[in-house]
């Protein structure tokens, strides 16, 4: 008789959703309550302030939506832009592609800079396009900070410098879904006008809570859309409704109560560790994974070290090997969930997510499982090589800076 139960826990190493700390899961086990009660703001009002910290902001405004990151993309676009407005963006992976698709479907005029998958946004090309826009028709620059499909991180600070060098008034929108809460992010310093996050990545929560940090400039742009016949339609994602209710601790509709309690606890986890330590830990885990890949004799999808992501590593399968089979075998045989290749890299890469609530031994388990799946699928790697390389690096590089 076939086994009906897998012993042990599933080892989740996709780049989101991520592992949820036990204390966060316990915090979400709450009874329903009246979200209009006089006690409710004691939960919510601190969240609007504390959440800004993971965005690197003191000046921004936080909106919390029962939504995924995709919903928050729509929120950013529909509140600040009008039909036919020009936006400038780069396409270098599945998620940058999806944001472009959304903008086009909403009725925006999208100027796309095509980049090779495995690279990211090119600040010099963005500056050139903005300098050429003498009439300032481009209203926003959209950048995916961390492209999980390819394991690539773009330099948002350099993009901001490019916009400033061109003396262009375009807003800066950043998809930080797989970076915020894990990679250094400085919304105020980089003058990010809309920074987008989802609960299921660095915030270590289930999917379903979308978070956006909005600058004063973006709020003014949204106010300027009021009454325009060409404004983009919005109801559920209208910031104005939140602006009326949030200051007193309430929402314009029923909030996802367990996720709010979970967010409070997840933020406590991050702040207790210290955000700089969180960023350092992800950098160490990312490099340990890349050390394992090199020891296997394989290559990452990222074309050069400048693009390496510290939250996910996309690994190129050898020529003639279907990466999807490596992923399926790891899941069925070893109860290990690895990330699949998407779109242009489907069947060509498998991904190890190293984001969220992870430590050295967690990562080594994933590397060991991936290595066994590679061997089982006929990939010529030296048994134990990836684990040895990663563990050697981890022994020499503590996860905490303090």
TrEMBL record:
The modification N6-(pyridoxal phosphate)lysine is found at residue 201. Signal peptide: none annotated. Substrate binds at residue 351. GO terms for molecular function: alanine-glyoxylate transaminase activity; L-serine-glyoxylate transaminase activity; L-serine-pyruvate transaminase activity. InterPro entries: Aminotrans_V_dom, Aminotrans_V_PyrdxlP_BS, PyrdxlP-dep_Trfase, PyrdxlP-dep_Trfase_major, PyrdxlP-dep_Trfase_small, SP_NH2Trfase/AEP_transaminase. Pathway: One-carbon metabolism; formaldehyde assimilation via serine pathway. Pfam families: Aminotran_5 (PF00266). Keywords: Aminotransferase, Pyridoxal phosphate, Transferase. GO terms for biological process: glycine biosynthetic process, by transamination of glyoxylate. The keyword Transferase applies. This is Serine--glyoxylate aminotransferase. It comes from Methylorubrum thiocyanatum.
């Amino acid at each position: 008789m076939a086994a009906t139960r897998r012993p042990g826990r599933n080892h989740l190493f996709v780049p989101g959703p991520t592992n949820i700390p036990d204390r966060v899961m316990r915090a979400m086990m709450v009874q329903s309550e009246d979200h209009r009660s006089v006690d409710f703001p004691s939960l919510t009002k601190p969240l609007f302030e504390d959440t800004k910290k993971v965005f690197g902001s003191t000046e921004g405004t936080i909106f919390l939506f029962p939504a995924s990151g995709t919903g928050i993309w729509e929120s950013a676009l529909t509140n600040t832009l009008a039909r036919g407005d020009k936006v400038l963006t780069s396409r270098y992976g599945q998620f940058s592609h999806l944001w472009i698709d959304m903008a086009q479907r909403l009725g925006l005029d999208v100027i796309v800079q095509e980049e090779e998958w495995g690279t990211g946004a090119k600040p010099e090309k963005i500056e050139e396009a903005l300098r050429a826009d003498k009439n300032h028709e481009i209203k926003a620059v959209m950048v995916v900070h961390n492209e999980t499909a390819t394991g690539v991180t773009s330099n948002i600070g350099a993009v901001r410098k490019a916009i400033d060098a061109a003396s262009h008034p375009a807003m800066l929108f950043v998809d930080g879904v797989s970076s915020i809460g894990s990679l250094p992010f400085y919304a105020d310093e980089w003058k990010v006008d809309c920074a987008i996050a989802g609960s299921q990545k660095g915030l270590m929560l289930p999917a379903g809570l979308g978070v956006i940090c909005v600058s004063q400039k973006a709020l003014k742009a949204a106010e300027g859309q009021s009454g325009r016949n060409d404004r983009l339609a919005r109801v559920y994602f209208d910031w104005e409704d939140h602006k009326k209710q949030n200051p007193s601790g309430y929402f314009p509709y029923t909030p996802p109560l367990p996720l709010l309690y979970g967010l409070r606890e997840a933020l406590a986890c991050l702040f207790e560790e210290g955000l700089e330590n969180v960023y350092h830990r992800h950098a160490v885990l990312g490099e340990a994974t890349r050390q394992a890949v090199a020891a296997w004799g394989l290559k990452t999808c990222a074309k050069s070290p400048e693009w390496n992501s510290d939250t996910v590593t996309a690994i190129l399968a050898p020529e003639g090997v279907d990466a999807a089979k490596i992923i399926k075998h790891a899941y069925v045989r070893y109860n290990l969930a690895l990330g699949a290749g998407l779109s242009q890299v489907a069947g060509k890469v498998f991904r190890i997510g190293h984001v969220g609530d992870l430590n050295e031994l967690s990562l080594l388990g994933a590397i060991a499982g991936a290595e066994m799946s590679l061997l089982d699928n006929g990939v010529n790697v030296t048994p134990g090589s990836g684990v040895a390389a990663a563990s050697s690096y981890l022994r020499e590089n503590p996860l905490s800076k303090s």
